[in-house]
Structure formats: C-alpha cells, structure tokens
Amino acid sequence: MGYEAGFGGYNSAAAILVLFILLVIISSAFVI
C-alpha cells in the first residue's frame, strides 16, 4: 500500500511513459 501511496501522483505520468515506450518498440519491430 505504501508503494501505491508514494507514487499516486506519478502514476499517470508513468502510464503515459510506458505506453510511449511500447509504441516505440512496436514501431521498431515493424521497421525491422
């Protein structure tokens, strides 16, 4: 529970960052 409380405000930013990284990986996979 402490982990969730500590990163409550950082949760949305982390989700966007993860989605962006996944998008880049998928794009690279199609390019290669």
**Low-confidence spans:** none
Please tally the β strands and state the result: 0
Number of helix segments? 2
As for the number of domains, it is 1
**Class derived from helix and strand content:** mainly alpha
What's the topology here?
Layout: H1 2-6, H2 11-31
Organism: Paenibacillus chondroitinus
Protein name: YjcZ family sporulation protein
Main location: membrane
Task: Give your account of this protein's structure.
With 32 residues, the chain is an all-alpha fold. Helix content is 81%, strand content 0%. The chain is built from 2 helices and no strands. It has helices at residues 2-6, 11-31. The protein is rod-shaped. It starts with a helix and ends with a helix. The mean pLDDT is 77. The chain crosses the membrane at residues 12-31. It is found in: Membrane. It comes from Paenibacillus chondroitinus. Belongs to the SscA family.
Keywords:
single chain, mainly alpha, 2 helices, rod-shaped, 81% helix, 32 residues
Task: Provide a brief overview of the structure.
The chain has 32 residues and is an all-alpha fold. The protein is 81% helix and 0% strand. The longest helix is centred in the middle third of the chain and has 21 residues, at 11-31.
